[in-house]
Structures are given as C-alpha cells and as structure tokens.
Amino acid sequence: MQRALVLLWFSATSVETTLPATDVDAALREEFDKESCPGAAGEASWLQRSARRKSLQELHEGSETRQNASVALSEDKQYCDSHTGGSCRFWSCSSSRGPTMCTAYQCLCKPGFCAVDGVCKERTAHAVDTCGRQTGGSCTLWGCASYRGPVECVNQECVCKEGYCSAGDGTCKRPKPAIKARVAAVNSRQPFFPDSQAQVRTGICFSGGGSRALSVTLGVLRALESLQLIPHIDAISSVSGGTWASSIYMFAKDVSVKELLGEDTVPNDLTMDRLEREPPRLGDVATTSINIFWTIVGKWAHGKSNPRDMWIDVYAKTVLEPFGLANRSQFMAADEASLQRILAENPSLQREQFLIPNPLRPKTYIMGGTILAPVGLEATERSAVNLQMSPDYTGSPFYPQDKVVSYDGKDTREFLLGGGLVESFAFGGSAPISENGQMGGSKVSMEAPPSAFSLADAVGISSAAFASVLVTASGWMHLFAQHAQEYLPTRDYWPVTSALFKERRPAMKHVLGDGAETDNTGMMALLQRRASKIVVVHSTNVELSEEIDFCGSLFDITQLALHGKVSNDLLDKFGYIAENPGEYLVHNQVFNRNELQPLLCEFQKKRKSGDALVVERQLQVLENKKWGIQGNWKASVIFVYLNSCKRFDVNLPPETLQEVQKGSGGKFAHWPHFKTSNQNSGKFTTYTNEQVNLLSAFGEYMIRSNEDMFMRFFRSCYSSDKR
Questions:
Q1: DSSP state letters, 376-442
Q2: For residue 462, which of 169, 212, 242 has the smallest C-alpha distance?
C-alpha cells in the first residue's frame, strides 16, 4: 500500500507531455486496425465471435456512415462531461456555473449534473448528455497528453477535435449509436437473478490477498481439477488476488490444465531444487518483475496512459497479457449463443471484439468490486455497496436496506443504488432512454458506453485496494488524497428502478474500488443467489491466535478483542466487526453470533492436531437487508483458512523444512502468510519461484488432505454426468 501511495503521489505531481508528431487520426486508425485484425499478436481468436461478417467494403461504408452520423449528432445527446472550463486555483467557482465542486483546481459539475456550454445542468436519465469538448487538460506549457485522443490546443486548453466528444474522463471519443441490452431487476420484491445466475446451488469463493491469494487459489484449483470436481461447481466468486487467478482460469484457452495449473504435488517431493523451477503458467504471474509496474507509471508520466486507468493497466499488463487477455477494447459475453444474440440486436458492434469464458469452466463467474461514491463524495457504511462484475451481467443487486442513501461531503442529496444488473457490454454508459427500460427488460435502448468494459477493467477494479483509503483520507493525508483521487478507477453507474423507486435516475460517475472493501471473501454474492453449498477459501494474512482457548468452557467471545486474532473477513459474517481503514463491514452479518465459537473451536482442534484448518458447518442464514439476502434457510459452508500446518511442514524434505524454519531469515519469511507487498525487498507484489510453488502446493494440500469431505460435499448435489 505504501508503495502504491508513493507512486500515486508521483503521478499526481507530474505534468502532461507533448503529443507525438504523427497525425492522431492516422495513429488511431492504425491502432484500431491492429486490434481488430484476426491473428494480431495477443489476440485470443477462440474467444472472439464467429459470426458472419460483412464484406470489408460494406464494413467500411457502414463505418463511414456511422461516423458521419455521429458528427451530425455532435450537438445531440452523447456523453455527460463534468468539465465546465472554469478554474478554482485562486478563487471559488462562479455561481453562474451552477452546482459545481472544486477538484484539482478545476470547476467540475457535481454528481448528477453535466456541463453544457460551461454551465452545470441536471442530468435527467440521458437527456442532458451532450457533446462537450472540454477535456480538463491544459496546454499552457506543454502539449496535450496523447492518452486524451484526438485533441487540439485552443486558448491554452486541450479540446476535443470536431466530431469527437469529451467522455468525462479526460479523453475524446467519437459518439456511438445507441445499443440494446438486457436489464435485470433484482430487488426484495423480485429477488431473482437472470440466466445462469439463477441456478447457483454450489460455489467456491476465492478471497483477496494479492500474490498470496493467487498462489493459494492456484493450488486449490489444481486439486479440484485433479479430483474432477469442477463440473460439480456452478459458480466461482472471487476478489482481488483471488480474481487474478480465477480470471485467467476462467478465460484462458489454448493452454492445457496441466500447463496452466501444474502437475499434482505431495509435500515430501517438494525439494528446494523442485521449488526453484519455474511455476506453472498461472503461478508465473506472481513472479512477474516489478519493472512492469514502473513501465506503466512511466508510460503515464509521458502522457500515454490515462491516470484513472493506471491501476487497471498495471494488472492488465502483469496478470492478463501473458494469456492474451489484456486487450481493453474487448467486451465480455457469457457464451457463444449470448454473443450471437448481442450482435444480432446491435449491428454497430459487429466489428468489436468479445471475450467469452472457457466453456469447460463453471457457468457463473463473479468478480467482486465496490461502488464507493459519486466522484467528489465519500462513502459510508450504508452507501458503499458491492459491485458484481461477470461476463454476462454487471451491477449491484438489491437496494441497501431498501432505502436511498446519502454520502459524506458537501452534498445533502439522497441517491439510489443497486436494484439490479445490466449486460456487461453495456455497463459504463448512460441510463436507459425510457422510464420502463430502467425498470428492466430484454431489449432496453441506451447510449453506448464511451469505451468497452473489459475483463481487464473488471480485474483492475477488483484489485484497486487503495481506493477506499484515499476516498476516506483525513488529516495530513487529506491533502495528498485530493490529488491521488484523480487516479482512482471511475465509471458511469445508474441504478435499476422498480415499483419501490419509480423515479428515473441518471447515470453518475462513481469511484470504484477493491471488492475487499465490502466483502473480501466473495461469499455474500453467492448467498444473494441462495447457493446452498459454498466453499470459502480465506487466503488471509492473520494466523489463528494461539493465545486464546476458543474451546474453553468459560470462554465468552463477546468480551474479546479479536482484531488481529482472527481474520476480519471471517468475523464480519458472524456480526463481529474489526475493521481496517477503508473497509465497510458493519452490515455483513449473515450467520448467528453464537455459531462463531464452535467454528473457531474446530479450527483450534485442527491446528493442535497438526491438520489444515478446513471445517464444514451447517449454518442458518440470517436476513441481511443491506445485501438483500433472505433469511431462514440453511447453507453448508466449508471454511478453508490459511494457517500454519505442522503435518504439511514435517512432511517436507529436510532441506525445505530447514528453510521454512529459518523464519524471517530464510526464503520463506512470514510462511504461510506471505506479504501482499514487499515480501521480497523492492519487489512490490512479486514472489520467488520457491514461494509460489510452496504456497500453491499447500493450497492443494488443504483440499487433498480433506478429499473425502470435498467429494461428498460436491458430488451429493450432482450426478457425474452433469456436464
């Protein structure tokens, strides 16, 4: 985190640099052709749609027609831009500009308002979306940054060229035709999820935890594949580092399971010589050199990358690029049939690229993020909600407590959040055009988002761990955070309305963050879908305390301070809150408080016997109004808790065990709770081959040493020919 903050500070104090001398339009055409052309480097051709394509001449003519129409529409409804062109460097914003806020010395419209001729007007659904040309960039001393796209320097300001509109994020985009997408209302009166998400009975969750979580997840997936249990799992729900691993697993193609996850392991074969070998391809991601991070930062410093995209670009490059999945121009779709329908309903997308998951993986995949607050406001315990990003749908189901919310900051308005999902290819644009459309439907018309919501976007947002810390910064950190917030991921977001909240609501640009800020396990999303069998893999950095006797007869858990003794990500589900800065866990209780001690007692027994902390519990699910979880039903949950395990350690070869026992002086410092950053000095999130291989082997061991439990757990739900 400290390294990330320093880098953000460096970015905040940098200046824009000069555009290359090459013609912008020509460069964009060249880039588009490179990205669209079959066979281009890095392209995962199997994932792109196999729909029949028009002739090149027809595509060219159609493109020209759309471009000409877009120029003609440049004064019509397109994007909501908040840049008024006013400055507040020395004086406050003029009241004549309407509802404004001073951000980075610029007068920007408040959330829910758009700049029209320098004046902020209320954004009623899509009705005030116009073609503003102010990017917020200055060319007083240097030229405009190239990431802005087709711009020109006018009166010392970076302004979009004719035919292009400011997309509200400092870039210029050509207006696009409206699209049609499915909108699924999910609320307390209609608690039903769409398509495959309505059929989730079994699921597995992979928690956050950076490269530590990636390594553990790798091992767990290897064991589940070896035991042939993947066909019995309906859903994967993951957060942050768990998403790094699961996203590759879900989408990678042209790579065998063995090549991706590696060969099966047993502890006594893990010699230092074997551990030093290159990890399987998924594990190799965690050994990527830190130089990639500095390359991305350098790219931004030279004006080639949007500050708000910096974090996303880092993880696209580091995590996804080795598998051909880093193209941020690629949309997502659930499967080939869904893709064909989307293209049939949206001819304007015929030339776009799509990613679809590997059909041999679970049918439902959820990447957890957090919707923090509209830009300029601060999230609260009640208003910070989970953002669920999937190949098929993205959004936030249910209204928190079935109420509108408010935020901290100089804005007393009430806002509506949640209520459902929109197809992922349409996420990030304006609200539906019609009032009925915002309530849900199968072919809902809306303005197209200015850019694709890609797999890389979802992975980056799920990993943006610094976001909530900056949004809630106070004291001396507040001055720094004001600058650093310019580098947080943002997207236009609108709620799904219903009979509960009929009034149309416009899209507003929201700050998005790591899923850990609302739920670091991914379990809440599966409980919302009423999954009755859930495995939760806690890749935690908190060792179960040995100072507390969790099985003691006089034990009173309500009188104990458990912060640092047990993972917060487990405690919050039982109503025990021990938050870290930037977390919003107060409203996460879904199980009875009196069920926590028996679980921790079972963990303690496992630890004393030298076993991995893997415990199955039958738990009564409680109603949770913030998350929209209906209560009064039971779920079977297997908790897999990362912790030291004597039986695994003593079965290691002598030289490996000796290295583990060296502690901070050896190659496995902090075992098994490797740090998420600076585990190895100066290496940010990078692990060594030995660290990845040993930790993934332990993840595999936790499953294999409880093979009977997992076989019974999953196979009791499905016959072996389910898929």
A1: TSB--TTT-EEEEE-SSEEEE-S-GGGS-B--BSS----B---SEEEEGGGTTSPPPSSHHHHT-EE
A2: 242
Helix axes 2-12, 476-484, angle to 10 degrees: 60
Quickly tell me which residue has 């893997």 as its tokens.
614
**Interior CA angle at 703 toward 700 and 709, to 5°?**
165
Q: Give the H/E segment covering residue 332.
A: strand 331-332
Nearest-angstrom CA–CA distance, 355 and 330: 6
* Residue range 434-473, pLDDT digits in tens: 999 999 999 999 999 999 999 999 999 998 876 544 555 4
Token couple for 163: 């035919």
Q: Collect all residues with Cβ–Cβ distance below 8 Å to 674 and sequence separation of at least 6.
A: 211, 212, 215, 668, 687, 691, 695
Two tokens at 169? Answer: 């994020």
Tokens 């917030």, residue? 485
For the CA atoms of the chain, what is the radius of gyration?
25
CA nearest neighbour of 366 among 502, 542, 238: 238
Tens digit of each residue's pLDDT (9 = 90 or more) over 534-563:
999 999 999 999 999 999 876 677 778 888
pLDDT score, position 410? 76
Q: Which two tokens stand for residue 371?
A: 């919707």
Among 6, 677, 12, which residue's Cα sits nearest to residue 308?
A: 12
How far is Cα 490 from Cα 483, in angstroms, rounded to an integer? 15
Strand partners, 420: 185, 396
Q: Which residues contact 116 (CB under 8 A, 6 or more apart)?
A: 128, 130, 132
* Interatomic CA distance for residues 590 and 401, integer angstroms: 14
CA distance 93 to 624: 43
At residue 595, the 3 state secondary structure works out as helix
Q: Which two tokens stand for residue 139?
A: 């060319």
Ramachandran assignment for 18, one of left (phi > 0), alpha (psi -120 to 50 degrees), beta (any other): beta
pLDDT score for 61: 36
**SS3 for 542?**
coil
For tokens 């757990």, the residue is: 713
Q: Which domains does the chain have, with CATH numbers?
A: 179-723 (3.40.1090)
- Where the chain has pLDDT below 50, the residues are 1-76, 126-128, 468-469, 473, 476-477, 719-723
Q: CB–CB of 81/136 below 8 Å?
A: no
Burial (Cβ within 10 Å: 0-12, 13-18, ≥19) of residue 2: exposed
Contact 256, 238 (CB under 8 A): no
Structure tokens at 522: 């991914």
CA distances from 578 to 561, 566, 574, 581 (A): 8, 9, 11, 10
Residue with tokens 């408040």: 110
CA-based nearest residue to 236, from 198, 209, 193, 203: 203
Nearest to 269 by CA among 648, 717, 677: 648
* Cα distance between residue 309 and residue 346, in whole Å: 27
Give which of 355, 426, 343, 360 is closest to 391, Cα–Cα.
355
Helix (H) or strand (E) holding 607: helix 596-608
- Tokens of residue 291, six digits: 């130089």
User: 466 and 516 in contact (C-beta within 8 Å)?
Assistant: no
Q: Exposure of 42 by Cβ count < 10 A (0-12 exposed, 13-18 middle, 19+ buried)?
A: middle
Dist. CA 194–CA 188, nearest whole Å:
15
